[in-house]
Amino acid sequence: MAGKVVTAPAELRDRLLRVLGGVPATPAPAQLEMLGAAAAQDGMSKHVDLVATRVTGPVDVTALRAALDSLVARHEALRTHFLLEPRRLMVVRPPEPAWLDVEEIGDLAQAAARAATLLATPVDIRSTEPHHAVLLTRDEHTHVLLAPLRHLLSDEVSHGVYLRDLAASYAGEPQAECGRYRDHAAAQTAALADGAGVRRRVATLAPPLPAMTWPRTPDKRRYRQHTAAATWTSGWLGEITRRLAVRGFTFGILCAAAYAAALHAVTGAKDIRIGTSMANRGGEHTNTIGLFATMSVLRVRVSDDDPADELLHRARTTMLGAVEDAVPLAAVLGALRESTPGFRASGLYEATLTVVNQGRPVPAGSATAFEPVDGFDVDDRPAPAFVPAHLAVRRGTGGRDTEVRLGYNTDLLTADDAETMLATMAAFLQVAADHPERVLGAVRDG
């Protein structure tokens, strides 16, 4: 018939799933800000996560496809899309086969380029397309698996869950129990509606919030970031963390306290506020893929007269409070604007902290292993400086050293300042383990 519109199978499937398929669910509070940004871009989101792993050993493609299908059936986040109108909802589709593309590459540089392209490609959060992965093969024993995920449905911890479950399924091994992401989203929505968590965070961050005075004060800022790096050897750091863990201090607490000491050393600030990601993954959702992380702020009081042990306890208190509440930063900012006329979000924190674990290779049977490829928000090249200082710590596991990178705004900090901060952090950790009664002024002065 003239003028008849023929609908492609993919388009027809998409329309049918929108109308008939899936279970609507309320998004988690942490998703709402990104949903708003995607709605403003006609459903397109630039927030893309990428699970990347080197695969060593032979790969049975048929078994890998089956493992991906099992992964999708197990985790709701891998078969969820969003509706933006008439209201914003997650839609969890029934289990469905995943898509796996297999491509040959000449070298691993091609894999890195492909990964960069996937990360830079916006995704349609309304799309009902199945979960998609790419296996890049150089030779029989060298492969790279790339799986782009919507950041709306994934966080840093989710990458490890993805690889562990995929490897276990590929090898035919049992997997740990995991909860449904929609249940976590509903629980977090209820907790936010109660308002108690937001009120606690607002009380913690209530003004006045004095600005930090940085060593440099240019007339005009170019907002360019450079990087200083250090390595904490596994033997040295392992001994320190073991001794301090006995006293109740986790690795994240150590990093926050050491960073606060370093910021105080170069700025003289006594009210240190550090933006960092928190995730409340307790109980049944420990092994669930999904967006649990939300930005929070650690507020730590620091002075030269504080013993190292006192600073550790303050960092512990503020971190445990942030973990317990784990409310979206947007909700806290909204409440602060209502309670404090003229409040500016840009003054809430001027330093950020990222702590991740280097993933160990995950066995996938006797001859194959998945080795995660981790990245940093800070790299060696000049980049836009979104905050004056960003500390990224990638903790070594299995005897590997820990990588420490400090991104700093060169308008506000010099290279010498950055090196002072790195040295101060290492010195603080050593003193905290050996002489916890020593005050920070003595640590800074050598």
Features:
globular, disordered N terminus, 23% strand, 7-stranded mixed sheet, Chloramphenicol Acetyltransferase, alpha+beta, 2 domains, 6-stranded mixed sheet, single chain, 446 residues
Q: Could you explain how this protein is built, in words?
A:
Strand 4 (80-83) and strand 5 (89-92) form a beta hairpin. A 7-stranded mixed sheet has the order 12-11-13-17-18-10-16. The model is unreliable at 1-8 (pLDDT under 50). The protein has helices at residues 9-20, 32-40, 61-74, 108-120, 156-171, 181-194, 196-204, 234-245, 251-267, 308-325, 329-339, 415-434, 440-444, and strands at 23-25, 44-45, 48-56, 80-83, 89-92, 99-104, 123-124, 132-139, 142-150, 224-232, 271-279, 293-301, 351-357, 362-363, 369-372, 383-384, 389-395, 402-409. 38% of the residues are buried. It has 2 domains: 10-183, Chloramphenicol acetyltransferase-like domain (Chloramphenicol Acetyltransferase); 195-444, 2-Layer Sandwich (Chloramphenicol Acetyltransferase), CATH 3.30.559. The termini are far apart. By secondary structure, it is an alpha+beta fold. It contains 13 helices and 18 strands.
